[in-house]
Amino acid sequence: MRLALFFTAIVSVTACGPDLNSPSSKSVSGRWQSPDSVSFFRDLKLDMTQTSDGDITGAWNSLLKGGNLSCPPGTTCPASNQLSGRNTVVGVSIEILGIGKFTGQLEESNVLRGDVFRPDGDFKVKFTKIP
Length: 131
Hints:
Layout: H1 2-15, E1 30-34, E2 41-50, E3 55-65, E4 76-87, E5 92-96, E6 100-108, E7 111-118, E8 121-129
Antiparallel strand pairs: 1-2, 1-8, 2-3, 3-4, 4-5, 5-6, 6-7, 7-8
C-alpha cells in the first residue's frame, strides 16, 4: 500500500507544471541594449523576433575596441552579425554570432539578465528593452 501511495505521489508531482522545453509565454521580441562590456565589445544592441514556439532570430550591433579583430589600434569600429536562440519556461539562450552564447532570464518584461560565455571569459550582462 505504501509503495502504491509513493508512486502515486511521484506521478502527481512530475505531472505538475509545463514541459521545461516549452516556449515561454513572455516574448523577448524587440530591441534591447546593454552598457556592459563583453570582452572587447561594448554598447551591445540586440534586435530580436520571437515566434510563438519560442524560437528567436535577429541581429546584433556593437562597438569594437581597437586593436582587436580587424579594428585598428586606437580606434573604435562598428561590429554586427546575426543571432538565434530559444526562449523557454526555463530561460533564454541566444547564440550571438561572433560574440558568444548568452544564457539568462527575462526578469521583467523589460529586463533580460544573464551571462555571455566566450573563450576569453564569462561576462555578466544586463539588457534593457528600448521602448
